[in-house]
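can u do me a favor
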């Protein structure tokens, strides 16, 4: 899934439910979401917190989500909030690493990214 356009909290807070519904419909439980092309200014940390909580509440540990983004620190914050609430999510700057991680089935083992 690729998301483009301008960042809007009102839109992004809806994506976890859309992703879950599509995954359940397709019976696929691993998804890669590319948000690199989303035009955004400074996203308030509180919005990232609520987005991370929403991802965890909706997807939990049932759907594995790889998020490809620009690699800024705030994206790691979103990941930490969601994983601290038991979600299977990780942020990447490389689609290749995201795909490898999605195929990796041992969540308790460290994942080393490939340098591109």
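np, heres the sequence
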């Amino acid at each position: 899934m690729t998301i483009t356009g301008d960042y809007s909290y009102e839109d992004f807070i809806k994506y976890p439910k859309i992703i879950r519904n599509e995954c359940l419909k397709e019976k696929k439980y691993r998804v890669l979401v590319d948000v690199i092309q989303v035009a955004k200014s400074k996203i308030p940390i509180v919005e990232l917190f609520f987005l991370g909580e929403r991802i965890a509440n909706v997807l939990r540990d049932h759907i594995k989500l790889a998020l490809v983004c620009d690699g800024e620190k705030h994206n790691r914050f979103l990941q930490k909030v969601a994983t601290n609430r038991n979600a299977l999510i990780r942020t990447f700057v490389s689609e290749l690493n995201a795909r490898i991680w999605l195929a990796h089935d041992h969540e308790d083992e460290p994942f080393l990214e490939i340098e591109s």
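The longest strand covers residues 30-34. hope that helps!!
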